[in-house]
Amino acid sequence: MSTESELEMEKKLVEQLERMGYERVEKCNEADLVKNLKVQLEKHNRIQLTSDEFEQIKDKLKKGDVFDKARMLRGRIDVIGADGIPKYIELFSVKHWCQNRFQVARQVTNRSAVDHSRYDVTILMNGLPLVQIELKTRGGDMRSAFDQIDRYRSKSYENNSGLFGFIQLFIISNGVNTRYFSNNQKLNYQFTFEWSDIDNQRVNRLDAFAETFMERCHLSKMIARYIVLHETSRNLMILRPYQYYAVERILERVGYGRGDGYIWHTTGSGKTLTSFKASQILSQDSNVDKVLFVVDRRDLDYQTAREFNAFSADSVDTTENTKKLVEQLNDTASKLIVTTIQKLNAAISREQFKNRCKAVADKKVVFIFDECHRSQFGDTHQRICDFFNNRQMFGFTGTPIFDANTVKTKFGNKTTRDLFGEALHKYVITDAIHDRNVLRFSVEYRDMVKPSDVVEMSDGSAVPANALNDEQLNHKSFINSPQRVNKVASDILALHPSKTFSREYTAMLCVSSVDLLREYYLSFKRLQAELPDDEKLRIATIFSSGPDDSEEFTGLEETTVPSVTGRNVDASRMEFLKGCIGDYNSLYATSFDATDSKSFYEYYQDISQRVRRKEVDMLLVVNMFLTGFDSPPLNTLYVDKNLRHHGLIQAFSRTNRIYDAKKSHGNIVCYRRLKDATDEALSIFANRDAKAGGVEEVISTVIMQPYPDLVDSFREEVAQLKAIAATPDAVDELFQEEEQLNFLAKFRDVLRMQNTLKTFSEFHADLDSSMLDIDEQTLLDYQSKYLDKREEMEAVQRELRKKKPLADAQDKELAEEAEEYQVGFDFDFEIDLIKRDEVNVTYILQLIEKLKEGGSNQKNYELTRDMILSVLQTDPELRHKKQLFQDFIDIKLPKLKTESDDKVEGFVKKQFNTFVNEKRAEAMAAACDELHADAEGFKKLYDEYIYRGRLPDIKELLAILSVKPSIIARKAVAEQMREKMEKLASVYESSEG
Question: In this structure, what DSSP letter does residue 891 have?
Fold first, then answer.
């Protein structure tokens, strides 16, 4: 049975869309679309456009980038008629999305002097191309469809009339898997999404996806209502399915005018975007007078308002005090308000404010509470209910309160359901992991006390470890003992390089009390005292100088930025806090004051930003930052604190944000016995349907296998790799493209497993001792072959791309060969997993310094030389510089004089930099001779490329040629010139030490 071709899949999709009510546009080119646009706009707006009026429209449609055009799409265009009276043309109906006009076209061609593109399937609304669909054959790589769209977006969408710059959504599919994503200046495969039903069951097959997602009204609604224009980044953000369903359920309840509810979406799933979209839509509802987005902490008041304003500039004014909130409540123009639960409580309970708020008491007010498991379990909830007579309340939480996890606190013991009613939509951590929206956890339990140890207690007494019971092991006289703290601190310092990939990521240490935090802070200081500054971990801390926090963190505690003034301030802790902030000021050249509330809050914000920017290696906390703080580069949490329920999930979830290819999971290192608490928390918060017997499956989904099981999996991957190519040299015997791709795919799997194992301290020792069925050198040799094979295939692809314009015009067979090869080649290479962060030009030059110093011993010289070249060969970025370094070592280094000059520090580096400049000039001159290009003009374009990161366009390149190519050859010549520039940059830029 033959497989379905891409062409057959395309035809079936268009036929299906026709049955669903789309009007078919016959095979056409971009100019035909422009003619069609005039007809469709006239029908949509029920007017006739003169040729002059339509020219005005075309001129306006050409202006701006993707973001500008997205804004233009959602407004109206004014044109001036012959009578001087303006007409306002609606491009797309945002309010009545079903009333837009829907068409489907296939194989639309878009030609220009430098590019010839042909798009698979295009969805037109009112004549504008708003959705582009790229298909690949069944079994084809989805990434290749994404890459094809990325090439179109960068090379051809702005050609001619620029209509394709209005695309809002892309859809990619290979028939069995389908994804969608929004259009932006930069596309990222990580932000492509699968559609699912309301129960989070994926809708992957193209026909089913078309039936649901591409239903005319739904697709139009996704564009009209569920694309958010992020003003700060000028990006289009489309909601994921669970976000869509949550907003729809809230709107449905408000439409009925009765009933509350809560949204259970796991931590890290994008609740801010979901709640913003719900708030924004509700604030545009004429039946709603006010929408209040309520948070429970000052830091989230700042953070959430900032994020809301990023979605819609200046849409939210942060309420600095209760008086400002009262003004907003009485201002009919202020429909969307972001405030804190504390200020809202003051506004409706204090007499000086309460009377001024009476006018809004009977208004239709919709409340959206962020992290409602904390903010609504006190008297305030009842006060809100009593004060606002015509209200509806909706809560967002990643960790609801159920009967199984209620705790006795000052907030009471009611469940989330008691306060908000039913869950309107659920999206738990297992759903998010399946969808790759958050990462799994690797949980490691480390007991630093051996039965044979004699334990020193904090009171100075010594007790045999095997005589301590569980209660004593959790008592602060043992937990806070300097002996134990020093052991744990030393262990953390030893683990940190592997856990964070040599500080490429950051970490947090949470402890049970300020007194214990003090012990750790001082211990780290002592242990790092003798280290050079560049080897010391940059450690920061923030804590309350008031009464101590609870020994156990449940996540219901108030974690507001604490006051540093008043009667509750402990003098001893304040002195310690002053010292910590003093260290911070010295490290970062800041001037924060521990005794001033405003300055302390600014210190809090500064720490937040530095952690996100990876300027803090480890943050020490008690309770603060364990909830509501997002920092994707943070990948490790060290735990010396009892965690339960919400608190455990919230704290663990600081580590599992998606960041890059190398961050494959969140590391949790526990110095307390939290296994039972972890299993209990997951049974509550990850088991969405509370299925009996489903707990083990849930835990295995969220928690990675322990190290021994991962080792077994790695060995299996290695065995499969060796079955394809028994040795690295055997890779050279893989002649068939399918064999080569199999090798690339399997080595990628080995890389991913290796990347996970690297976070365990045992990995390198096991690798050195051949416990993993492969040694490090063999892995590096396979890696070198992997990079070689990748570059070979890229070279073939480049040649076919250069021939493709000519092939399209002259040789259909060659054009098809280029397309087919593209399907085979496009491969998700995990290059980020190969990069070795400790290896850079400075590191190589240090090795060359040693090479010169030990030059009298020929054997050592040869070994060091070979090692340097081997390191260069196996690094994806430095391998292009290998020949440059080799020439310097073999040609230049022996000629350097052995007198006093070369003893000066940096002498080799200085000589190498001179060598690089000479070689760059020679290579650039040779390139200009080969290309017949003006040397000065070439250097100017090259310098501009290095400075701005943008390769020159075809006109700029052709302008510097002394021999002009034929029209047909122009694109290929320009491509060759760009390749020369890229090659020069890869060899000579960032080469100086």
Answer: I
How far apart CA 776 and CA 759 sit, in angstroms, is: 16
Residue 262 DSSP SS3? strand
DSSP-based helix, strand, coil % in the chain, nearest 5: 50, 15, 35
* 222 vs 214: CA distance, rounded Å: 10
Residue with tokens 């240090």: 846
Q: Is the pLDDT assigned to residue 553 strictly greater than 50? A: yes
pLDDT tens digits along 881-912 = 888 888 888 888 888 765 545 555 677 888 88
Which phi and psi (to 5°) does residue 772 adopt? -105, 15
Structure tokens at 916: 């690089």
Q: Percent of the chain, pLDDT > 90? A: 44
Give the span between the Cα atoms of 429 and 180, in whole angstroms: 22
What one-character-per-residue DSSP string does 963-982 give? SPPPTTTHHHHHHHHHHHHH
For residue 307, what are its two tokens? Answer: 């994020």
Examine the pLDDT at 248 and tell me if it is beyond 90: yes
CB-CB contact of 148 with 55 (8 Å) = no
Phi then psi for 507, rounded to 5 degrees?
-140, 165
Closest CA to 587 of 635, 536, 634: 536
Please state the rounded mean pLDDT for residues 309-318.
Answer: 62
pLDDT at position 353: 87
Euclidean distance between CA atoms 22 and 121, whole angstroms: 12
Query: Using the 8-state DSSP alphabet, how is residue 889 labeled?
Result: I
SS3 for 524-592, per residue?
A: HHHHCCCCCHHHCCCEEECCCCCCCCCCEECCCCCCCCCCCCCCCCCHHHHHHHHHHHHHHHHHHCCCC
Lowest-confidence pick of 95-104, 394-403, 411-420: 411-420
Amino acid making up residue 787: L
Quick check: 509 pLDDT over 90? yes
The DSSP H or E segment spanning 943 is helix 935-948
Residue range 359-399, pLDDT digits in tens:
898 999 999 988 775 555 567 788 888 899 999 999 998 88
Tokens of 990: 């960032």
Burial class (CB in 10 A: 0-12, 13-18, 19+), 511: buried
Give the H/E segment covering residue 272: helix 271-283
pLDDT interval class at 172 (50, 70, 90):
very high
CA 702 to chain centre: 19
Please give the DSSP secondary-structure letter assigned to residue 563. Answer: P
Mean pLDDT of the chain: 85
Please list the residues that pair with 395 across neighbouring strands: 262, 369
- Specify which residues 77 forms β-bridges with: 89
445 membership: H or E segment, kind and range: strand 440-445
Compute the distance between CA of residue 339 and CA of residue 353 in angstroms, rounded to an integer.
15
Q: Are strands 261-265 and 618-621 parallel, antiparallel or unpaired?
A: unpaired
Nearest to 380 by CA among 351, 352, 345: 345
How far apart, in whole angstroms, are the C-alpha atoms of residue 703 and residue 655? 13
Better-predicted residue by pLDDT, 817 or 85: 85
Burial of 323 from C-beta contacts in 10 A (0-12 / 13-18 / 19+): middle
* 20 vs 14: CA distance, rounded Å: 10
126: nearest Cα among 95, 158, 103 = 103
| Distance of alpha carbon 626 from the chain centroid | 20
List, for residues 152-169, the tens digit of each pLDDT value.
Answer: 887 788 888 889 999 999
Question: Helix 298-311 and helix 271-283: axis angle, to 10°?
Answer: 70
How far lies 524's CA from each of 509, 623, 728, in Å?
A: 12, 20, 44
User: Going edge to edge, which strands form the sheet with 261-265?
Assistant: 336-340, 290-295, 364-369, 390-397, 261-265, 423-427
CB 902 within 8 A of CB 908: yes
| Distance between CA atoms of residues 274 and 263, nearest Å | 10
CA-wise closest residue to 640 among 532, 517, 557 = 517
pLDDT surpasses 50 at 810: no
Listed in sequence order, the residues at least 6 apart from 319 whose beta carbon sits closer than 8 Å to its beta carbon are 301, 325, 328, 337, 338, 339, 340, 343
